[in-house]
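Below: protein 1.
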Amino acid sequence: MDIQGRAAIVTGGGTGVGAATCRLLAARGCHVVVNYSRSVDAAEAVAAECRRSGVEAVAHRADVSVDADCAAMVEAAVARFGRLDLLVNNAGTTEFVAHDDLAGMSEEAWDRIMAVNLKGPFLCSRAAMPHLKADGGGEIVMTSSVAGLAGTGSSLAYCASKAGLNNLVVTLARVAGPEVRVNAVAPGFIDGEWLQQGLGDAYEAVKAMYAAQALTGRVSTPEDVAAAIVGLVTGSDQVTAHVVPVEGGALHHL
């Protein structure tokens, strides 16, 4: 897809990978809705950055786990831009709970992780689908994780939610095609605030471990992941129903 003059929604667009994706889309001439749930100041700042690239951009609050919020966000995007061509389901959450601490994973945390990471992408995709299918078709890209491929990550619930999301990519692509392509990126360790907060004092040691496992010799940045997301959108129209790891080859570490 040529994204010049097109319109996108990026969920979780105020920080991290979402913010980097918004900035890259805007630099390529794509109008953007910068979705946020709590980070209003960050989302407004990202939208302002995008506008400096010469596109329209607006911050929009929506909890992706709430159906009405998803529907309202899509309608607001179409009302603002007159179209919707791309949905990046990037919003995510987790709890850092050791996998062997089964009692430590509360039902409330499990439900919230599943609601944001798995139900949210479905709700947003369902709301967006009629608009994405119009005007020659569109794209959906999910931000998944290697946690859904390898079963390693911040918590059992997080791994399960991303595994479910990977399956949703395939099943949704079947029903969305041929007008809409559906793919995902699956990052590994991402250098940034999210993991810094989650890992605390262990952050640098864990980062070094993952960098040593990566065949590229380093962990990913938000910009690396954003480039993969935009690359799926602007690349071959024959790529759909796929989950593309963005982890420097760490999955193949021996």
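Below: protein 2.
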Amino acid sequence: MSATPSPLAAAQLILPAPAKLNLMLHILGRRADGYHELQTLFQFLDYGDELGFSPRADGEIRLHGGLPGVPDEANLIVRAARALQTDANCTQGADIWLDKRLPMGGGIGGGSSDAATTLLGLTRLWKLEHDENRLATLGLRLGADVPVFIRGRAAFAEGVGEKLLPVQLDEPWFLVVAPQVSVSTAEIFQDPELTRDTPAITVRTVLERGGRNDCQLVVEKRYPEVRNALILLNKFVSARLTGTGGCVFGSFPNRGEADKVAAQLPAYLPSFVAKGSNVSMLQRKLKSLS
């Protein structure tokens, strides 16, 4: 039997859109505009979606392999492409192919990462002169997590997540478990039981002592599937929620240990094993192309 061709086979440029983990997430307060002040620690995973790009001369943005139930107009990939067109006053278009691997509503950055890869990919494809700072500013309008994917370096983040301080972290192997739920970030941040008064701490304290995820108790209460996944994974390793969930994770010193635990998980609970990385595989790919 012949192998199934990649959905990205027709693309001129193929780039990864890596997952991320929030190793801790503290909510400090709510701002007047409704957004929350937070502190979090991001690290990337060598695992994610993949996007392909080819130029179009007619100015159209066409997405192939979009998400079920998500109109193209609402998809962050299309929104990012059109935002870049407008910002650059660019008349070129693009065909964009998406090979989706990351779960929606998983707290591992799927949509934001796709948007960042689109901005960086089309900047290259269209031969624009937008630098990282300009793309990060543009990306922030699409979502608070987009700038961290644009910059592609492990970081301590403050503000709404846009104030980034690069950090060097250990790069363990992670087992990420994805309960079959899509968690609404807006729903979690609006929950009256969410703790919003955690005192600010320094990056040094985070690196020395770690931190917790202030969203975890709220997510566990609303989504029993997440609570059950945490209980199960905690039997093997210290398990935590990433972002607003619903993915949960544990860290291991090597791939073999992570694979061993993954093999003991029930079949109904999807999971993957991936290496933590302080430089995203998107940035590494772009550097190899330059």
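Strands lie at 13-30, 36-56, 61-64, 93-99, 155-158, 163-166, 173-177, 240-241, 248-252, 271-277.
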